Amino acid sequence: MVHENLTLAVNSAASIGCCVVNTGSEDIMQGKRHIVLGVICQLICRDLVDTITLNKHGELLALLHDGGNAEDLAAMKPEELLMRWVNYHLHLVGCDSRITNFNSDLADSVVYAH
């Protein structure tokens, strides 16, 4: 029963976009911390990112570029909206840096300083 429930949990995580390649119920049952924490981190990130929508945060309309409209923003993925929000605030403080991803562009933490 435990094996089936953990398999269902791993498959469910994969179905919502979490990367669970080579992750199985055995890994969780064996308590492989790096795998368990990796899946948990992805689930938390997915939950947080899914709340970034124009419907829930009307203030995102400030991110419209010249010639853009609300439909353009509404069609963007949450990650794209978040990136645009970060770049918008970098522009507001006069920082020339811009991000295009949440990995290498944030690795040196320079963007966080602004």
TrEMBL record:
Q: Residues in domain Calponin-homology (CH)?
A: 76-114
Gene3D superfamilies xrefs:
Calponin-like domain
Question: For this chain's UniProt record, which GO biological process terms are given?
Answer: actin filament bundle assembly; actin filament network formation
GO terms of molecular function: actin filament binding
Record key words, sorted: Actin-binding, Repeat
Read off the Pfam families from this record.
CH (PF00307)
Cellular component GO terms held in the UniProt record:
actin filament; actin filament bundle; cytoplasm
Q: What is this protein called?
A: Calponin-homology (CH) domain-containing protein
**From what organism does this protein derive?**
Schistosoma mekongi
